[in-house]
Write a structure and sequence with these properties.
Layout: H1 2-9, H2 12-42, H3 46-53, H4 55-74, H5 76-86, H6 100-132, H7 137-160, H8 165-182, H9 208-235, H10 240-243, H11 245-267, H12 270-291, H13 294-308, H14 311-320, H15 327-355, H16 358-380, H17 396-402
Helix pairs in contact: 2-6, 2-7, 2-8, 3-6, 4-5, 4-6, 4-15, 5-6, 5-8, 6-15, 7-11, 9-11, 9-13, 9-14, 9-15, 9-16, 11-13, 12-13, 12-16, 14-15, 15-16
């Protein structure tokens, strides 16, 4: 882990994109921590709040396919820089939000910036990774996990101190802008490419398998974030102080696995890593459901976090290196499918829990992990561009077809 962190931190372009990953989740985690106060301040019922909260994922899903058109034309570096600089601005409108509609509009704008940045920063990380011929994408996603935990902690502290929403998010906006501006030169690229291609990125046949895998993985991740505490509390009888430990265990294991992921991916074949990780997640979570005890449930979520740690980075990388497609376009296409799973999975599992039980719902998540383990082999054996772990340098023709932009000088 120390080697992976040093590899990212000592290389300016790598550090810039890794910090961008952390800033994205810093805002989201901080917002999640203050949702109860916003609900109380606006007098929103649970049903109304649930509908309003859909505005952010809706904005994300709508903009992601369009970002696949934008990134190849302007370059992942400039799009990442510009969007990262302004990503927190919608949250500054919280003090003037006066109802459900204005809150939904604010969250929709935040979701659009979030979706744009998610595609651009993954494409940027892939470009830096290819130029250096080393793996950094898993470590970047580890920074994302840490950023979410820090953001949630900062938001909880701000709530405890009754810090006004405006002051809270102004601090984050200034901090994020400072970090991004400090690394401005690290996002610089060559002239933008006016690449041809569709305005809206949808998964073509070459990406259908990756899109399906990412759909399953992110559906499972969304289920943990939304249902783990309820499952432990209601389904297994855990105390209020214990119920939240399921997601904490999952997040901690995810961060730990991602910081080690790049070294693992350099040593072992990508397909085998994904298959093994998904299988471990399925077995761990399944055992936790069968044992039906809070401690077993928390352990199951921890094992799932370890198994899932590198899956999203690997699938994004595989999409970015699909021959014949610009990285930004291919990432946007599979990310759209993945985020559909992330945002639609929790309500679907809610129907399962209502009709059967919470244990059945979590069991379905374990089964999805098993499907990923079975399907990853054939999907990831499809022809794709070599990764740093392949041990060979791309030919000039291959590099020209995949690389979006020249990497700046470290």
């Amino acid at each position: 882990m120390i080697t992976a962190l040093r590899r990212v931190w000592t290389h300016r372009p790598s550090r810039a994109v890794a910090l961008t990953f952390s800033l994205v989740s810093l805002f989201i985690g901080s917002w999640f921590a203050r949702i109860p106060e916003v609900q109380a301040a606006l007098g929103l019922s649970e049903a109304t709040l649930g509908l309003v909260l859909l505005a952010m994922p809706l904005g994300t899903l709508l903009v992601m396919p369009l970002t696949g058109w934008l990134v190849p034309r302007w370059g992942a570096g400039p799009v990442t820089f510009g969007t990262a600089l302004v990503q927190g601005l919608p949250f500054l409108a919280l003090p003037i939000v006066d109802g459900a509609l204005s809150l939904a509009a604010m969250l929709f704008a935040a979701g659009m910036l979030n979706g744009t940045l998610n595609v651009a920063m993954n494409a940027r990380a892939n470009a830096v990774e290819e130029r250096r011929d080393v793996s950094i994408l898993s470590t970047c996603h580890g920074f994302y996990s840490v950023g979410g935990m820090v953001g949630a902690g900062f938001g909880s502290g701000a709530a405890a101190l009754s810090l006004p929403f405006g002051g809270h998010f102004a601090i984050l906006v200034v901090w994020a802008a400072g970090v991004v501006l400090l690394h401005r030169s690290a996002f610089a690229t060559g002239p933008p490419r006016r690449a041809s291609g569709p305005v809206v990125a949808v998964p073509p046949p070459a990406l259908a398998g990756l899109a399906a895998l990412l759909f399953c993985v992110l559906l499972a991740e969304g289920a943990v974030s939304n249902w783990s505490a309820v499952y432990l509390r209601t389904g297994l009888g855990a105390g209020a102080g214990v119920a939240g430990l399921g997601y904490a265990a999952f997040s901690g294991a995810m961060a730990l696995g991602r910081f080690h992921g790049d070294r693992i991916l350099e040593r072992f074949a990508t397909g085998r890593v994904v298959q093994a990780g998904a299988a471990v997640a399925a077995l761990g979570l399944g055992a936790g459901v069968l044992l039906a005890h809070p401690a077993a449930g928390i352990a199951g979520f921890f094992v799932q976090g370890l198994g899932f740690a590198v899956l999203v980075p690997v699938l994004f990388r595989a999409a970015a290196r699909t021959p014949g497609l610009a990285p930004g376009t291919s990432i946007a296409a599979v990310a759209t499918a993945g985020y559909v799973g992330l945002f639609t999975g929790p309500p679907l599992l809610g129907f399962v829990a209502e009709a059967l039980s919470l244990s059945w719902a979590i069991g379905i998540v374990a089964a999805l992990a098993g499907l990923v383990a079975l399907g990853a082999g054939p999907v990831l054996r499809a022809p794709a561009a070599p990764s740093p772990a392949d041990g060979r340098t791309p030919t000039p023709a291959e590099g020209a077809s995949r690389a979006e932009e020249p990497d700046p000088v470290p």
